[in-house]
Amino acid sequence: MSQDLFEAARAAMRHSHSPYSNFKVGAALRDEDGRIHAGCNIENVAFPEGICAEGTAIAHLIMAGARQILEVAVIAERRDLVAPCGGCRQKLAEFASPETRVWLCDANGPQKSFTLSELLPAAFATDSLG
Known about the structure:
The active site is at 54 (proton donor). The protein is α+β, with helices and mostly antiparallel strands.
C-alpha cells in the first residue's frame, strides 16, 4: 500500500464527528484513475443515523465521477486495527472487485490486509437479484 493512501485515511480520521462513541475512523479509497477519496465517520445523536468512514469515502468517490475502487485503507484512532463493518463491506462490494485489497492500519501504517472476498465471501450482487 502506498503512503499517500494511508496518509489520506489518517487525515480523514482527524475530521471524524464522533462525540458519542469517541470512536474515530478514517477511510481512503483509490479509484480507477489513481485518485484518492477519503472519508470519516459522522455520528448523530439519533443512533444509528450516523455514517461510517467507508460510506463517506464512497460518496466522495461517486461525486468525483469515479465508479471503481481499486484499493482501500481503514484506520481507527482508539484500536490497533479495525475492519469495515458488514454494511460497509457490502457497500465496498458495489464498486470494488472481489480481489480489491483492504488494508487495516494503525498509527504506524498498514498492518494487515485482506481481499474484499475474504472479508465478504458471499456478497449480495446483481446476479443475486435473479
